Amino acid sequence: MKVGIIGAGRVGAVLGAALARSGHALVAAVAVSAASKARAAALLPEARLLPADHVAAAADLLILAVPDDALGGLVAGLADLGAIRPGQIVAHTSGAHGLAVLAPVAAAGAFPLALHPAMTFTGTAADLDRLAAGISFGVTAPDELRPFAARLVSDLGGVVEWVEEQKRPLYHAALAHGANHLATLVAEAMDRLRDAGVHQPERVLAPLLGAALDNTLRMGDAAITGPVSRGDAGTVRKHLQALDAVAPGSVPPYLALARRTADRVIAAGRLRPQDAAPLLDVLSASEKEPVT
Ligand SMILES: NC(=O)c1ccc[n+]([C@@H]2O[C@H](COP(=O)([O-])OP(=O)(O)OC[C@H]3O[C@@H](n4cnc5c(N)ncnc54)[C@H](OP(=O)(O)O)[C@@H]3O)[C@@H](O)[C@H]2O)c1
């Protein structure tokens, strides 16, 4: 297919390069900033750099890889300019948006496709290897476009997860909660270890967190360990006091996650409610007033 990319950003440049690698003809791309031009030169050398409406006109498959908030305006602009033709496929790469944002191009006769690569991109060739290893794509597509979408994802070396239109925000919330908040949690843990005088926090954490992630992906709640899972109220109280002394901002997220952890281990039958009572009292007391 003739592929056009609007937005040679981190995702657009890499998906374009991956499609070219799998035999599609990458005909044109939009790159305005110096960073996007550099990415296009490195990853999309065969593509002509053109204005958005010219890229749209040149492509059978048009990929819109722009910031989420820019997508609606871009789609409306392309439709208003008459840059979209019937039968063309217009895909975006946003996780939060589904097909609704593509309504103006669908009204012009194009097939809409929401194609979200569930990966974090750097916009460099290193991403191509991660793609080739086989990531999942959260895909929302009209029924008649599903076979095409499945083939496209397969060309990218990936696996399809069909996501219903109305479930798209929930799908994206789950990914952000897992990946983005995990990064915040790890950065916080490294900071608190530094506060504790640890010189190489990343070295201390790497095997511990690697095992926790691996075990949880395989075993779910059964992988949860630590004082909350054992109902060790005294240890959790000491944690809260230590955190409050050096980093009070870490107390509310610790409390929220400890409470959620307790709920999950109790629901999973790992901790009996009567054994959890002292721990839950510590958490409730700390939620109501500062730790002492
Ligand atoms: N980054 C990730 O890890 C990741 C993963 C999965 C999905 N996504 C999704 O993929 C999409 C693109 O993300 P990204 O990380 O690739 O963004 P990015 O690196 O910031 O690149 C955005 C691209 O969009 C262009 N652009 C910005 N505003 C525009 C507008 N109003 N009209 C037309 N083009 C515009 C930029 O062009 P210039 O630089 O030339 O100005 C740039 O090439 C988003 O929907 C995002 O949610 C991102």
UniProtKB/TrEMBL annotation:
Domain Putative oxidoreductase/dehydrogenase Rossmann-like stretches: 1-117
Listed Gene3D superfamilies: NAD(P)-binding Rossmann-like Domain (3.40.50.720), ProC-like, C-terminal domain (1.10.1040.20)
Transmembrane intervals: none
Residues of the DUF2520 domain: 136-261
InterPro entries linked to this entry: 6-PGluconate_DH-like_C_sf (IPR008927), DUF2520 (IPR018931), NAD(P)-bd_dom_sf (IPR036291), OxRdtase/DH_put_Rossmann_dom (IPR019665), TM1727-like_C_sf (IPR037108)
One Pfam family from the record: Rossmann-like
The protein's name: Short-subunit dehydrogenase-like oxidoreductase (DUF2520 family)
Species this protein is from: Dactylosporangium matsuzakiense
